[in-house]
Design goal:
- The complex is a heterodimer of chains A (400) and B (199).
- With 400 residues, chain A is of the alpha/beta class.
- Chain A is 34% helix and 14% strand.
- Chain A folds into two domains: 260 residues, Alpha/Beta hydrolase fold, catalytic domain (Rossmann fold, 3-Layer(aba) Sandwich); 86 residues, Rna Polymerase Sigma Factor, Chain: A (Orthogonal Bundle), CATH 1.10.1740.110.
- Chain A has eleven helices and 14 strands.
- Chain A has an eight-stranded mixed sheet, sandwiched between helices.
- The relative contact order of chain A is 0.13.
- Chain B has a single domain, classed as Rossmann fold (3-Layer(aba) Sandwich), CATH 3.40.50.
- Chain B is 33% helix and 24% strand.
- A seven-stranded mixed sheet of chain B has the order 3-2-1-4-5-7-6, with helices on both faces.
- In chain B, helix 2 links the parallel strand 1 and strand 2.
- The longest helix of chain B has 11 residues.
- Classes of the chains: A alpha/beta (400), B alpha/beta (199).
- Chains A and B meet through helix 10, strand 14 and helix 11 of A and helix 3 and strand 3 of B.
């Protein structure tokens, strides 16, 4: 339980479900006849409805981006560092909308939901959804919430890809696109890591062809392994050295001399046990994740990442995709991110420039790897805050 | 606004596209956006300056000029600016070529090392000039390629660059008849408006 909710938190929040009966035709051609999206909002929509900000979540994220769902919660939402009163995405100024994407496992319709046609879990029958499908469903949510235009659409990693899709498909419904630590499309290396994760899940004996929920089980080991591999790609070498080199003597810490090789019990076991801190950390992370996340959702989300390629309709030319994207762009990347390194963000920036778009770009020095986008890194948070303050000022001056 | 920027802005047409290389805190672009409806983008590497740009609504890209401008298309801007940055570049001549590839015209300003004060300092003391305007010592200066008005004229001639306008001013950015008469001796800041010679 949290001791007390901090003053700069959005406090206790309650998710809300929106049911959609109009069928949604997916990129694959399949049709989702009906679905629900679960949403949290923070702050207040102003009378002119100009201050709404959409948050797009990444691979393992959900609608719970800030605050606490109950007094018993030990941790706030996944982006509480940046969302709250007085924070970078200031809920005193903005009405923040955060949803769980279609195919997710935190309340929106997904593989772990009941298929109304069969009255069984969707499981592997849930259609593959793409970033474009998510954005289309977010547009419907926006209409339902009677929000004419987003002041900004914001997201990191896979969330950043949704931001790009928004700017390509619906630029007239947004004024600013804030895309953090993303890539224009996945590289072979990115896809390879995703395939290792998927293979570890599907080869778990408890996967049962994806029908594990019907059979009252789940592929715990596979999900754990998937998360362990994924987690390594979110951290940088230097971040791991720092995190797991704490018991090194001072002179070694300064030079990262022990390479983050802290031992768990002070000595080697000379057996196949968990000897190093980093091993036990990965086990812990994998274990925790496997209890809270649906394996089929993980498969879907990684597929959505692999399939993301906004150039498919534009002869492979991303700058053509941005031809009508007349919102303003802010992109940021992190120096030690090797999952979506700065070069990948620069590719997007260069295609935006080629398309003659208005764009700002920052390359943030940070040791934390891909994970940096979730962390309170001063220059990053200040930039996000400064940019959004400006968005707010534009709002105010337009209104007067 | 910095007075050299005051002079520069007269050469920038309303509604034009401007790329500002080393845009600092973005004050010139901000001013041009507000007064001339210019579509501007600045390049900058200093974090504090970039933050200022974000806060005043100026498009800014973190990009090191010494790593080139190959990410910009030819003739994609009307004017490319290089204000008080030339002397800090590793390959100033290459950058000027790039400016005139990307922009229809370019504006360059630099401290004139041929000014009498620099000459007198070096001649009388025998040491590299240090002044209010050039405050660094030789070993820690970011200014690695100082030049004079005559040097820049020679470079333009060598590269067949057309000088559309040239003005020199003092540190208060006042021009005068005697500076116009002896620009390389009396001018402290040189301001050039250049384009490719299409004749």
């Amino acid at each position: 339980m949290t001791d007390s909710i901090p003053a700069n938190s959005v406090g206790l929040v309650k998710p809300q479900a929106y049911k959609f009966d109009e069928p949604l035709t997916l990129r694959s051609g399949k049709v989702l006849p009906e679905y629900e999206l679960v949403v949290e909002t923070y702050g207040t929509l102003n009378s002119t409805k100009t201050n709404a900000v959409l948050i797009c979540h990444a691979l393992s994220g959900d609608h719970h981006a800030a605050g606490y769902n109950s007094e018993a919660d030990t941790k706030p939402g996944w982006w509480d560092n940046c969302i709250g009163p007085g924070k970078a995405i200031d809920t005193n100024l903005f009405y923040v909308v955060s949803l769980n994407n279609l195919g997710g496992c935190a309340g929106s319709t997904g593989p772990a939901s009941i298929n109304p046609e069969t009255n069984k879990y969707y499981g592997p029958d849930f259609p593959v959804v793409t970033v474009r499908d998510w954005v289309n469903s977010q547009l419907r949510l926006m209409d339902r919430m009677q929000i004419p235009e987003w002041a900004a659409v914001v997201g990191g990693s896979l969330g950043g890809m949704q931001v790009l899709r928004w700017a390509i498909s619906y630029p007239e419904r947004m004024r600013h696109a804030i895309c953090i630590a993303a890539a224009p499309k996945l590289s072979a290396q990115n896809i390879a890591f995703n395939e290792v994760a998927r293979h570890s899940i599907t080869s778990d004996a408890n996967f049962r062809e994806g029908r594990y929920l019907e059979e009252g089980t789940y592929p715990k080991k596979g999900l754990m392994l998937a998360r362990m591999v994924g987690h390594i790609t979110y951290l940088s070498d230097s971040a791991m050295r720092a995190k797991f080199g704490k018991s090194a003597p001072d002179f070694e810490q300064e030079t990262s001399e022990n390479f983050g090789r802290d031992l768990r019990s002070g000595k080697l076991s000379f057996g196949l046990n968990v000897d190093f801190q980093v091993e036990s950390y990965l086990h812990y992370q994998g274990e925790r994740f496997s209890k809270n996340f649906d394996a089929n959702t993980y498969l879907l989300m990684t597929k959505a990442l692999d399939y993301f390629d906004p150039t498919v309709d534009f002869e492979g030319d991303l700058s053509k995709a941005f031809a009508n994207s007349d919102c303003k762009f802010l992109l940021m990347s992190f120096s030690t991110d090797w999952r979506f390194p700065p070069e990948r963000s620069r590719e997007i920036v260069n295609d935006l420039l080629k398309a003659g778009r208005e764009v700002s770009y920052l390359e943030i020095e940070a040791d934390q790897g891909h994970d940096a986008f979730l962390l309170p890194i001063p220059r990053y948070v200040d930039a996000l805050s400064g940019y959004l303050q400006r968005v707010h000022q534009e709002n105010e001056s337009d209104a007067s | 606004m910095r007075p050299d920027l005051e002079i520069i802005q007269q050469w920038i047409k309303p509604n034009s596209k401007v790329l500002d290389l080393g845009c600092g805190d973005g004050s010139l672009l901000h001013y041009l956006q507000a007064t001339k409806n210019v579509h501007g983008i600045g390049l900058e590497i200093d974090a504090a300056n970039i933050q200022h740009c974000l806060e005043n609504g100026t498009n800014v890209i973190e990009q090191n000029l010494d790593k080139g401008l190959s990410n910009f298309r030819s003739e994609s801007f009307d004017t490319v600016l290089l204000a008080q940055t030339l002397q800090a570049l590793s390959k100033p001549d290459h950058l000027i070529d790039e400016m005139l590839r990307i922009g229809k015209n370019g504006i360059v300003t630099f401290p004139n090392f041929g000014n009498w004060k620099s000459r007198l300092y070096l001649a009388s003391r025998g040491r590299m000039p240090v002044s209010k305007f050039i405050p660094h010592s030789w070993y820690n200066t970011p200014n690695i390629h100082f030049c004079t008005v005559k040097d820049f004229d020679a470079l333009c001639a060598e590269k067949n660059i057309k000088v559309l306008a040239r003005t020199v001013v003092d540190l208060e950015h006042q021009g005068s008849w005697y500076m116009r008469a002896w620009p390389n001796l009396l001018g402290e800041i040189a301001i050039y408006h250049i384009s490719k010679n299409t004749d």
